[in-house]
Each structure stands twice: as C-alpha cells, then as structure tokens.
Amino acid sequence: MATSANTTTPNTLLLKNPSIFKTSTSAFHAFPISKRLSISIKCSHSATVVAPPTQDRVFNFAAGPATLPENVLRKAESELYNWRGAGMSVMEMSHRGKEFMSIIQKAESDLRKLLDISDDYAVLFLQGGATTQFASIPLNICKPQDPVDYIVTGSWGDKAFKEATKYCKPKVIWSGKSDKYTGIPDFNALDQNSDSRYLHICANETIHGVEFKDYPTPAALLVADMSSNFCSKPVDVSKFGIIYAGAQKNVGPSGVTIVIVRKDLIGDAQEITPVMLDYKIHADNNSLYNTPPCYGIYMCGLVFEDLLAQGGLVEVEKKNIKKAQILYDAIDESNGFYRSPVEKSVRSLMNVPFTLEKAELEAEFVKEAAKEKMIQLKGHRSVGGMRASIYNAMPLAGVEKLVAFMKDFQARHG
Amino acid sequence: MATSANTTTPNTLLLKNPSIFKTSTSAFHAFPISKRLSISIKCSHSATVVAPPTQDRVFNFAAGPATLPENVLRKAESELYNWRGAGMSVMEMSHRGKEFMSIIQKAESDLRKLLDISDDYAVLFLQGGATTQFASIPLNICKPQDPVDYIVTGSWGDKAFKEATKYCKPKVIWSGKSDKYTGIPDFNALDQNSDSRYLHICANETIHGVEFKDYPTPAALLVADMSSNFCSKPVDVSKFGIIYAGAQKNVGPSGVTIVIVRKDLIGDAQEITPVMLDYKIHADNNSLYNTPPCYGIYMCGLVFEDLLAQGGLVEVEKKNIKKAQILYDAIDESNGFYRSPVEKSVRSLMNVPFTLEKAELEAEFVKEAAKEKMIQLKGHRSVGGMRASIYNAMPLAGVEKLVAFMKDFQARHG
C-alpha cells in the first residue's frame, strides 16, 4: 500500500475531482507550449503537495486507533473540503441528505460483500465502542434472570462479563487469568450451561494477543467481540448471533461501532434499555435514528472499498499471515532474546506482544525504535513488555523494518 | 470566513507543514532563475489545488450536521495525511499518545476559555449524541423515585422527557405543544415541584426554532440541552448543573457529545447505569476511559481555536444576531408572503423555520434555491415548511444571498 499510494492518488484526484483537472489544464495553458510539459508535471505532482512524501510517514504499531491505508488517507484528503463536487465536506452533510445516504448505503453493502452477510442479519453503524455493547447485548437479548456464559481469554472478555452482571446472570465458564491470558480453552472441555442465552467470546484479545482460530459451538447463541480482528480474515457470520467491533483497529477511525445482529434477536430489549442502546431503534431506522458518526462511517466505507479492491478478505488474510509469520519467526529464532508469552496455536495475527529476556532493555528498545520511526511499540500498561499491532493497514515493509531492527538490536545488546 | 480562507490557508499550510515549504522550495530551485517567480507562484497556489475554489462551495442551511468554518476545513485538509509532522493522521493516533493528548487537552482548555468554565465543572467529550444524555442525566443524578421537572418547548424536550420516564419520575410542568411549539413559558407562572431533583430545558429547539433568551430559576438544578445553540453566544455556566450538546451544529462533526457537569453531581449513578453512561468513569479518566471519537474531538478543537480567534463568543453572538436579524426582517417585511410561526421574543438565532402563504410554492422555493447553491432549506419532515439553519459557520454572505433570493422569488410568485 505504501508504494501504491504515490501512483494511485493523483489519478484518484483527477477522476474524483474534475475541478482539479480543470485547474491543472488551465494552469497548463497559461504557459507557452515550449514549457507545457515541465509545468504540467509540476501541477499534477502538486495536487498532492499538501502532504509530505511517503518517507515522512512513521510505521505506527499502535493497538488502536491504528494505522490506516495510505491510499485511503490520500483519498480522504482529496475529498475533505469538497466531496465529489457536492460543494461541502462529508463532515457538513445532513445525515438525511442524498449524499450521505449514498455513503452509508455503499458502506453497508460493501461490508456485506466483504463478510458475505445474509439478509437474516442487520448491520448497524453505532457509537460508544465495544464497551457500550458490553451492556447493549444483555439489555437487548436477555431478561434479568437469564443465565449466560462467558469465556474470558483476556482483559476485554473480563470487562464484557463484569458489565453483563448488571443486566443478566452471567457466568465465567473458562478463564485464562491464572495463565496470564496466554491461551484458548479446549472447546470439548467447556462446561456450558444448557439454559445459557448466549456464549460470549472475545475473538481476539488486543492486549494479550490471543486469537480464536476456530469457534466453540454454543448451547444457544454465539456472541463475539471482534473489535481487533474484524475484517482481518473471512468469518462465517452465520455461526454467530451477534458480532460487534469498534472500527478503530482494521476498518476506520475511532467513534464508529459496527454491530452485525441476527434480525430475529431484535425487538425484545429490557424496559430499562436506553433508547440509543436499543437495536430495534437503529435497525428500524437504518442507523439513522439520530445523527450517526457520519465522517467515521465515510472513512470505514473507503476502507471497505480498499479491502474489496485488494481481492477481499481471503487475500487480506494471506497478507496478515505473512506479516505475522515473519514477526513470530524473528521472536522464536532469537534464542530467547525475544519471547512471546502466547501459546503458538492461538497467537494473534493482529497484536503481537513480546518481552525481552533482559527486561531492563525494553525501554531502550522502544526508544531506539521510535528514533527509526517505528512508534507505539510499548506494551499495554497492564502487562508491560512490548506489543506490535500489525493490522490490515500495516504494510509488510513496516514489519520487515521492525524485524530488521530487532535483529540489529539483539546483535548490539545480546 | 468565506473570503478569509483563500488568503489564510496557504499561509497556514506553510506554517504548519514545514515539509511543504521544503517541497515548494526544492521544486522552486529545480527551475532556472528566470522562471522561478512564475513557478513559485504556481507551487504556492497548487498547495490548495486539491480543493476546488471557494465559489464551488454551496451555502448549506442544514440543521446538523451543518456547515463548518471554511478555514477550519482547509486546515484539517492540510493536516489530514500528516498532522504537524507527526508522520500520521490524527485518525491514526493512539488516544494515549502524546500527540492526541495534546489535542484533547487543548480542546478542553480552549472550550473552558470560550465559556469561562470554572474548575467546579468537569468537561467531558463523549459519544452518542444528546439522545444518550436523555438517559445519562437521570441515571447519573437521580434515584428511581426522584421527581424531576421538564419544560417542553419542542420535539427535543419531549424526547428528553420520555426517555427520563425509564429512570426517575419526570413531570412536564409546561408544554408548548398546543401552540405547536412556538413559545417559551413565563418563568413566574411555572408550577415547579419544590422536591424536583432538576429542571430540564432544551435551550434551543432545532426543529421549531424557539430559543430561551434567559433561564428560569430551578428549585434545585438547571439542566440544559444546548445542542443547537452551544457556543453561539456567551452563557453563564454557573447557573447550570449540567449543560450538554451534540457537536454537529456549531462546534464540529457529528459523533462528539460535550457534557459540562458540576463535579459535585458526579459519582452517584444508579446501579443499572451502563459504564459508558457513567459520568464518574469519564471524569476520572479525562474522557479517555475507552477510545474517544478522536478525529471529531480534533475538529472541535480547530473550531474552538477559530471562535477564540474571532474574539470569543461575545463577537460570535454579534455576528449571529446580525445574520438572524436580516433574515427575520425579510420574513416580516414580506407582507405575509413569508411567515415565521414563532413568537418574536423567542425566535432562535440558529434555526429559522418559515412558511409560505401559498404553501403550494414551498417545493418550488426549495428547488430553485438548490439551483442557486443554497441547500437543505426544506423544513423538518415533522413540521413541513422551510427552515434555514444559520449556525456560527454560516457566512453573512450566505444569509444575504438567501434574503436576496427570497425577495426575487416573491417578486416572481407574489
């Protein structure tokens, strides 16, 4: 992506912004024929001069908000002031106007293509992050006395469980806490409650770096927080009652939460449910009951287009596997200088926590990496160590640069 | 603003983006001395060529999301791909990184300056719109049996009341419904419950265009939804227990909700309160308990800077009064061709609903205005007629153009 942006963006600009083309050509004709070639080159280059060249860009390993596809940022930049000739920014559009309606409808239909979501499911663009869904889910599909099961493989699953205690009778049927959240349970050994309304999992634990590679069969419904691996690989949506995800890892900026919910689960919320947490309100109004986070939804739409242009999630997953492989290999082949605490079979493709054998070198590692324009490699404050988040938009070049740096760092400090 | 943008933006770009300056000069030096002047002019002009010229911009009278200051959009455009040399977009920044921390802290401190907010109040940047606050307020400051009073001057006040019925014992002590929401009550005649936990008002009704010019004295606390007139004029915050506002009218894009709450009211939420609706969680974490709507907060910050640069809210109010005056005058001096349903003394400076004596001409009015690049003048579907929303960022030139069009339309159809 890093390299493609340079070549694609000017074209995008000319295609999407006819006025630029006008500007360029009129400027072009303002100069004598003998000078036109050089001038027209400068003008077409100058269409992106508001942003510095690619080499000024850092490799951002933040866990979210996280790096976005460079060509998506270039397109957003070119459309920010005047969206496709509408005479206004997407940020200024009435959410009920034809321009924004076309944006949100396209975003939904592209997401349905990416994940092959059937009409049995509603796709909602909401606010409040996964943390709001921790309450919305039991409020929408449970009665106060309903038992529900939670598998807790990290901090986020634990937070989801704790919030649910306010609205139903959740039970932790498996916790990885005693092993410092480094594994996923054996599904056959799970002690599920046959009356459980749903089984909740966090498909990828952003902080601990453990990821479900397959999914347990629930007594009733499977509900998954996919915030940090959403759209990073194909998923059989039909296996789930609800999938929810904050956008700020793989698909957009923070402030948008996507909920994919089976339609037959909608419409029986508890009486105490705030109207903004009621799925029926949003489903009946196509996510436009009140003003949605319009610009964030627009950005997600640009990312969905980019993922489809890459060949869809099958191709995206291949790239993510390759990136993760070279990083885990570097860790495993360091003779213990670097260490991954996570069981090999469930290591996350998205978030790669690792420690140094000599813990006293970790601060130096982060500091030197930052000097090399590789930022946000410090592990979450709750677990320490390092963490490299390598979401969809992290270029292979970024992981290769990190791996080269790790080997050099080891050579100097090993 | 419309005119200033042309001159200020290139300077902003050079100041905020040293790399552009580098790019320009290197391009500059690539040409023979005899050509430098003309080339450097082209390059400096081309720094804004990604956006069409100002005259391509529409006048957007939408009620929200609404028009934003043109110079703010230009600045956001220039910083979108690489924020002030950070090597990343604001949309990609970790909300716990030093870059975003500086953005949210500056936004809060500028808002405190604008409204002269004392340390007795917390300023929270949240999600979910005013509609989420309709639940958050009683959940945070009431027990289920607490009586509270609502003055209902329009659709939003009514929605706030209905949501509160889930969490406390609200009573409508005055409603303008029988008069189609065209007035504000006489404060002396209000039958307030002396035990009422708070008195709720909607300071400006976006749909009906009625605005409180002064505020009633509550039995206990005054709580105000200021979504559609927030930062449009000075407000004595010390008169209020809670002020809340969706950003998407006067201060930013949709997806950000600002809550100004007296600190002594924080920390006693009902047990059923979703964690994301608990003011204490957000106050204790400086609005960073979970990932906030970072880019929206950044945009609000740019708007706050712009409002301060205009001289603060005293100066902003003067401009708003002038804009509203010429529009209401045009209506009142039309010999009944145009009609404002709202009592003169409480007409909103922000949202100006009006009807045509010949209702059959309204569709034509909206259609012809759109041809003249004045959009979103159709009244809310619930009340019909027309509505011109003229928030802070609507230039005087936009209102003058609308008034000229109204007179011409009357001459042709009167």
From TrEMBL, chains A, B:
It comes from the Eukaryota. This is Uncharacterized protein. It comes from Smallanthus sonchifolius. The lineage of its organism: Eukaryota, Viridiplantae, Streptophyta, Embryophyta, Tracheophyta.
